[in-house]
Amino acid sequence: MSQFVIILGILLLSFVSGMLGLGVAFAAIPFLGLFFNDLVHQIQPLSLLLNGLTASFAAAGFARSKLIDWPKALTLSLITTASAPIGGYLARFIPQFYLWAIYVGAVSFLAYRLFRPVQGSSSGAPNIRLAYALAIPISILSGLLGVGPGFLLMPTLILVGLDSKQAAGVNAIAVIPPSFSALIPRLNGAQWSPELAIPLLIAGGVGAFLGARVTSLYVPSHRLRQIFAVMIVLVTLYKLYTLMA
């Protein structure tokens, strides 16, 4: 019964993450924590694997609707992949409390801005160079905290002027390489059961693809922006609760 609940939960969470062009790790980590006790050897490796896989299937869903600007997406992938390990190295020197304080402040500001009208550059085109520049500190901060960069990168792409659906597609591509590169050093100590991991991966892939397709076909861009704003507020409040508990 518990295995069915885990699979169903990952399916639903992957559907939501796929709608937003995210990997599912931001929600999978606290969800799997309800069933497993070992964060380092069970929850994190499985969540990272799910994150890369769900982001890949979400990207496929957005690509089918031609919503991915590939040059922008691949450039961001290079930036996030190169910058995130810097954060992983610096994490040993900086207290996590201060890092989470910065993170909470950043997502609070981004959530506030997502409810306001989005303006691009003075020419009317997205200021993608600003997004490239901001992707560096975002990726470093995500590496410091051990989370994916997509949760901060997605609203940043919207705020520099990308359409919300296109931002979701670009974001999905950008978070795939960091997810798998972060998984590699954890593979030796990973502990997972194939009987559970394989159904979870299938559920995650299906959910993410369907979520991306629903967004592509049925969700207006302004509504997607607001859904994401609500999502990051809820996840941030949950993180604050866990830090104070």
UniProtKB/TrEMBL annotation:
InterPro entries found in the cross-reference section: TM_pro_TauE-like (IPR002781), TSUP/Inactive_protease-like (IPR051598)
UniProt entry keywords in alphabetical sequence: Cell membrane, Membrane, Transmembrane, Transmembrane helix
Residue ranges of the TM segments: 97-115, 127-147, 196-218, 224-241
Main location: membrane
Membrane topology per record: Multi-pass membrane protein
Cell compartment(s), UniProt: Cell membrane; Membrane
PANTHER family reported in the protein's UniProt record: MEMBRANE TRANSPORTER PROTEIN MJ0441-RELATED, MEMBRANE TRANSPORTER PROTEIN YJNA-RELATED
Family label: Belongs to the 4-toluene sulfonate uptake permease (TSUP) (TC 2.A.102) family.
Annotated protein name in UniProt: Probable membrane transporter protein
Organism: Thermanaerothrix solaris
